[in-house]
Amino acid sequence: MNETQVKKSSPVLDFFKRLKNARETSLILIIVAICIVLSITNPYFAKWANIQTLLGSIAINGILTIGMIIVMISGGLDLSIGAVMCMSMAFSAKAITLGVPPILAILIGLVGAAVCGFVIGQIVTKLNLSHFIVTLCFMGIARGVVYVMTSGISISLVSNLKTMPTLAFIGSGYIGGTVPMSFVIFLALAIAADLYARKSSGMRKVYYTGSNEMAAKHSGIKINRVKVLACVACSVLAGIASVIYMSKYSGVSVSAGEGAEMTALSAAVIGGVSMNGGKGTVAGGLLGLLFIVLIQDAMNLFSVQAFWQDLIRYVIVLLAVILDVLQERARKKKNS
Questions:
Q1: What is the pLDDT of residues 212-255, one digit of tens each?
Q2: Long-range contact list for 92-96, CB < 8 A, 24+ apart?
Q3: pLDDT at 224
Q4: DSSP H stretches of helix in the chain
Q5: Handedness of CA 105, 253, 70, 113 (dihedral sign)
Q6: How confident is residue 307, by pLDDT bands cut at 50, 70 and 90?
Q7: What's the pLDDT score for residue 74?
Q8: pLDDT for residue 10
Q9: Cα–Cα distance, 330 to 332 (Å, whole number)
């Protein structure tokens, strides 16, 4: 074997080649550049108060994004996560106001979210309907359940949380007085989810199902079970996010979670998660979320009007989707 062949087969060179081509690498470089520019152009950006706000805003949307990534990798989509989050916290908050212990109340909310995900998965798999249609309907159903439960009136837990310091700490507390507890919870879930996605045989089945459903079925993978479990995981993560939201805002707003599905979807697509399934990473999707949060923070710091913010945000998402389609076409052309 000559020297050229040795270099070509070097694990180190292969690693750096993969790193160079990874979407995560590009996003990290873009995020670093944005942070440098904002630090120079706006002195408030680098202050710890602003960073704490950023970390706190990432937590809830980050947990929802993890759920969206799992469903998208399986070949689906979940437009109901924001409404399911609101429904889950409505169940928990209502139980707390009725005197149910906090832990049991939270479990009630999580079970409600899990049941919702299970029903979505069953309808998608048994009736062979698209995730888009089913979850769009469940967006309205879950939101309707909230309105029926609350009569359209927000549930306040201000007085309840005064006697429940542990629950209050989840959304409003700080570790060491500096790092939001909500961000610590999100970070732990993000690391666990990313490791599970990269290392576990269970998640490989999700990738196979999303990549080529028929091939996965012929290889012995129970694709319907995989799809249902992906839907349940997404809804349970929405339930976990609801606990943080309920604690952070001391109650439940009937409009809570509106638009959360678009933020999660946007983050996933920007982070390289394919709309066609079978491709993407948790880390990439969360980097996509960080990119969105930084752009949002920059627009707020420079007092960009709200209608311009929506325009800019959705143009960025559209460009990300177009890039994803072009990359997929280039990959198929290369493999053909």
A1: 999 999 999 999 999 999 999 999 999 999 999 999 999 999 99
A2: 92/242, 92/243, 92/246, 93/155, 93/157, 93/246, 93/251, 93/252, 94/149, 94/150, 94/155, 96/157, 96/160, 96/164
A3: 95
A4: 3-8, 11-21, 23-41, 48-73, 81-97, 102-126, 131-150, 158-162, 165-172, 181-199, 201-211, 213-218, 223-248, 260-270, 282-301, 306-335
A5: positive
A6: confident
A7: 95
A8: 62
A9: 6
Q: Kindly write down the DSSP assignment for every residue of 216-257, as one continuous string.
A: HHHTT--HHHHHHHHHHHHHHHHHHHHHHHHHHTTEE-TTTT
Alpha-carbon span 17 to 212, nearest angstrom? 26
Q: Give the mean pLDDT of 42-70.
A: 92
CA distance 289 to 102: 30
Radius of gyration of the chain (CA): 21
Question: How many CB atoms are closer than 10 A to CB 228?
Answer: 22
The amino acid present at 172, given as its one-letter code, is S
Angle of helix 260-270 relative to helix 48-73, nearest 10 degrees, comes to 80
Position of tokens 């908050």?
93
* CATH code of the domain made up of 55-322: 1.10.3470
Q: Which residues pair with 175 in a beta bridge?
A: 179
Domain ranges for the chain = 55-322
CA distances to 89, 99, 117 from 105, in Å:
9, 9, 19
Q: Please determine, for residue 7, whether its predicted confidence score (pLDDT) is greater than 50.
A: no
Provide the sign of the torsion angle of the four alpha carbons 67, 69, 75, 77, taken in this order: positive
- Return d(Cα 274, Cα 210) in angstroms, integer: 9
**Confidence at residue 316, expressed as pLDDT on a 0 to 100 scale:** 80
Helix (H, G, I), strand (E, B) or coil at 274: coil
**In sequence order, what are the residues at sequence separation of 6 or more whose Cβ sits closer than 8 angstroms to the Cβ of residue 275?**
72, 77, 269, 321, 324, 325
> Is 50 exceeded by the pLDDT of residue 5?
no
Q: What is the mean pLDDT of the chain?
A: 89
The pLDDT of residue 14 is 56
Mean pLDDT to the nearest integer, 57-76: 95
Q: List all residues 6 or more positions away from 145 whose beta carbon is below 8 Å from its beta carbon.
A: 87, 90
